[in-house]
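Entry type: protein chain
Record version: 2
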Amino acid sequence: MAKDTLTDLKIKKLKPPAKGQSEIWDNKLPGFGVRITSKGTTSFVLLYRFEGKSRRLTLGRYPILSLSAARAKAHEALVNINAGGDPASAKRHTNKLSDTLLFHELVHEFIEKYAKRQNKTWREAERILRRDFLPPWRNKRIDQITRADVNKILDAIIDRGAPSGANHCFAMIRRVFNWAIERGLIEQSPCAGMKRPTKDISRDRVLTDEELQAVWKTADQEK
């Protein structure tokens, strides 16, 4: 197996194999590596042994999942394994649950397990999600929400005269689906490959996930 110290630059330079897939394993963290398929899909993986058998855990796709976040997930999984757990089996169970997970359930999980823990202004996140996304998607399975569904909502927000609100809502729903990927609830976000719905101007620049606190604080301007 090819081994190297993984960096963002090295991952970006990976070339898809002619067929099948190729893998590069990290020198820093045992079993942690990156896989690229012939179609160009790049994912982080973790190899480990559980009860004498080899296991493979897919951590997430790059660049939706950053290298640093993937390392952290791999380390967390290794701690779990050392304590007697089997993260690959747990993920398969979670993926089965996602077949019936509805959007309103995802919103509840996101607010309780992420927003409330990360930001004191979590109520703004809840307000945006309940106002713009829950009405049309409440009982829709999260794996059935498409890019077209996202665009339909963003277009409606722009049509009501709130282009900056559309940008803020896009940043918010993108964070929700990226979080769902991080939790293993879905494999791909409907926001993947999408650009901000309106042009960047000084007062409505689309914020990064890390800047969502500012989004939540200013979201009341769109009431």
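Comment: DSSP finds eight helices and five strands in the chain.
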